[in-house]
Amino acid sequence: MTAREGLNLLVYPSPLESAGRLAKLALSLQGSGLFAATEVVGIALPGAPREEGLAPDALLRRVPGASLRSPMGALRILVAWQWRVYRRYRRARVTAVAAQNLFMLPMCHRLARRTGAVLAYNCHELETETIASRGLRQRIQRAIERRYIRRADVVSVVNDSIAQWYRDTYPGLRVEVVTNAPLPSTGRVDLRARLGIPGSALLYVFLGDGALGPRVRLAAERCPNIHWLPPVPPDQVVAHMRGADAALCLIEYSCLSHRLSTPNKMMEGFAAGIPVLCSD
User: Fold this and answer.
1) Which alpha helices (DSSP H) does 33-122 contain, by range?
2) 145: Cα within 13 Å, side-chain hemisphere
3) 256-269: per-residue pLDDT in tens?
4) How far apart, in whole angstroms, are the C-alpha atoms of residue 64 and residue 56?
5) In angstroms, how far is CA 30 from the centroid of its own chain?
6) pLDDT tens-digit map of 117-172
7) What would the DSSP string read from start to end of 136-203?
8) Which terminus of the chain is more exposed, N or C, with fewer CB under 10 A?
């Protein structure tokens, strides 16, 4: 089987509601011509489409699973959802499978061995040193990573600082750096005109969604100078940011992963050519 004949799978335990980074990665990999198709595999929750096209031969595929907020949601994802993903693709023509999360490594390793695929471990952050990595959870994370990281054919991280941490922690490990560069974007969205805001007014615009979305929308209802805009496709983010006078990228350095991170919004602000106010 040649690479062009097979599937490229990016496995991430998320509903893929705002899959900007993964969508960019899928489009870039599929555009390389190495794969017949690329699928970002996430969790299907009620009301979400099972398939969502990104481009010809590139899509988001949601497999039924539990929400993290549901009773024993994390355990159900680790066991039942991963088994459904494995069962779906174990007989497929898979060329590459990439664990986009540390807890996906064991299942992706098993799937790669079953299908003969290349195994990639794409670290979105410093996986064992996040704000949630404490106590027993952190010990389990470190044990999984120690067992499987050298079995991956490719290990990639988002910046040189995290790459050096992995090289120091696992001597001899080859680590690739793939920066989370924004997709090329032309044009400029005039946010003040769109929102009907005078040029002299102080304006805060939150673009996108996430865990704090409800709080942001509530603040927007109460404060006339705070506005919320829904997520836009990855190739439109920079054009929207060009409509701002400055970008805010404020990270609380509450863990090593945050301290070594390269936030998306910082890179997007630089690409938009506007000043970026960052945490020191």
Assistant:
1) 73-76, 82-89, 105-115
2) 22
3) 998 998 888 888 88
4) 24
5) 17
6) 999 999 989 999 999 999 999 999 999 999 999 999 999 999 999 999 999 999 99
7) HHHHHHHHHHHHHGGG-SEEEESSHHHHHHHHHHSTT---EE---PPPP--S---HHHHHT--TTS--
8) C
Cα–chain center distance at 5: 26
Say how many residues make up the chain. Answer: 280
Alpha-carbon gap, residue 264 to 177, rounded angstroms: 15
CA distances from 265 to 150, 176, 227, 276 (A): 31, 22, 17, 9
Supply the pTM of this predicted model.
0.84
- Mean pLDDT, the chain, rounded, equals 88
pLDDT band at 1 (very low <50, low <70, confident <90, very high): very low
Give the span between the Cα atoms of 117 and 6, in whole angstroms. Answer: 9
CB 254 within 8 A of CB 227: no
The dihedral built from the CA positions of residue 70, 72, 77 and 81, taken in this order, carries a sign that is: negative
How far is Cα 46 from Cα 64, in angstroms, rounded to an integer?
Answer: 9
Cβ distance 147 to 170 under 8 Å? no
Q: How many of the other CB atoms lie within 10 Å of CB of 69?
A: 7
- Which residue is associated with the tokens 């489409």? 49
Give, as one character, the DSSP assignment of residue 48.
S
